Amino acid sequence: MKLIRLFTAGNVDDGKSTLIGRLLIDSGAVSTDIIQGLTKANELGSEKSEIDLAFLTDGLKAERELGITIDVAYKYFSTHTNKFIIADTPGHWEYTRNMFTGASLCDVAIILVDVTIGITEQTKRHALIASILRVKQIVFAINKMDLIKYDEAVFEEMKTALLDLSYKVRIISPTVLPISALKGENVVHKSAVFSWFKGPSLFDYLENCPQEKELESTRMRFQVQYLIHANKSIGYAGRIDQGDFRVGQALLLLPKGQNLVIKEIIHNTQSVKLAESGSAVSLYFTNEPEIKRGDILTDLEKPPRIGNQFTADICWMSEANSDFQTNYIIQIGTRTLSAKLVCIHEKRLENRTISDNLMLNDIATVDMITDTEVVFDRFEDAKSTGSFILIDPVLFTTIAAGIII
Fold this sequence. Notes:
Helix content is about 20%, strand content about 35%. It is an alpha+beta fold and about 400 residues long. Helix 6 links the parallel strand 5 and strand 6 (about 175-180). It has helices at about 15-25, 30-45, 60-65, 95-105, 120-130, 150-170, 200-205, 385; strands at about 1-10, 75-80, 80-90, 110-115, 135-145, 175-180, 220-230, 235-240, 245, 250-255, 260-265, 270, 275, 280-285, 295-300, 305-315, 330, 335-345, 365-375, 385-390, 400-405. The chain is globular. The chain has 3 domains: about 1-205, Rossmann fold, CATH 3.40.50; about 215-300, Beta Barrel (Elongation Factor Tu (Ef-tu), domain 3), CATH 2.40.30; about 305-405, Elongation Factor Tu (Ef-tu), domain 3.
């Protein structure tokens, strides 16, 4: 079974949580007792017996009271062919940082657009974030089509505008679908009200979503987390970020630059000949090199870069503005060191207040410099060594997340 990670984005009240609720219920992913429980909860103090579909994802008490999504809510379900992880991300600009985080590891973006409102600044913001994070498959779901009586002409006009937006933010070959999440039209099942639409339902699209073999799969990346001393040998434990590791394979140790050959791979206490991407393993080598936590094991042909300067797109997550004097803590994979912002090339979105520094929820292209050399990749080549977080050196809170470009 394929694992497909997807997230929803859109304006407040565009119907993201309702859409996910509809996907879960109509695909049979929600058990009967949960449906009955939600129906009873919704009946309290009301004559309605209909389920509020958003309750399936809006788990926080504050979310239910305010009627909005605040934090990223994750839901899981499976079909006969796929396993899905859905991240329901907030729509309001105040929670851009939450959306950036929720989208960072996803394969599919579903960006909802209210057909009665059209493209807004949040639509542009979410499309840009999906583009920045190199999300492979992007779907614009034009929602609330029931409110315009499923008018094909209105859909085609909005589709043209969304394709134009996609071109501007460098989204390649997006899919545009008409739906009504509330009524369940074209969400899981094809609908007669969209007889003029020849494309798939949203669910059919997700089920048959082309899973492109990522470029980073040709690059091997393993970050050493800790050392294991057993039977007079030293094993180097960690998670394979990408690539397949085989016994007898030659690797490059960075930043030291030493060549190694795998003697044994231990996975789930068993010795194996092959370990795939995502596996937690211990590696043993024909010789015992000096390896420490944070070192990178990579293939010989496409190694990462080593240096102390890079350009990145970052999302500022702190209420305290950035500055150029502070020595922030940067964490790239398992490695932590000191780093400074050198300059801000451009802010990628229109700002609420003009500022020379980065403010909460700003997304910008910046130059950074670290106090010592570090191993890194471009994000599009390897996510594990191409992404990072910035940490406040006093409060030790996460203040920004970024990708190296």
